[in-house]
Amino acid sequence: MKDKKTRKGNFNLESITHVAVDKVGVEERVARFQTRSIKNEAKLQGLKMVLSMIDLTTLEGKDTPGKVRQMCYKAQHLHEAFSGLPSVAAVCVYPTMVRTAKNALLNSGVNVASVSTAFPSGQAPLDVKIRDTKFAVDEGADEIDMVISRGKFLSGEYAYVFDEIATIKELCGNARLKVILETGELATLDNVRKASDIAIYAGADFIKTSTGKIQPAATMQVTYTMLMAIKDYYDATGIRIGMKPAGGISTSKLALHNLVMVKEVLGNKWLSNEWFRFGASSLANDVLMQIMKLETGVYQSSDYFSMD
Question: Active-site positions?
Answer without folding.
Answer: 145, 208, 244
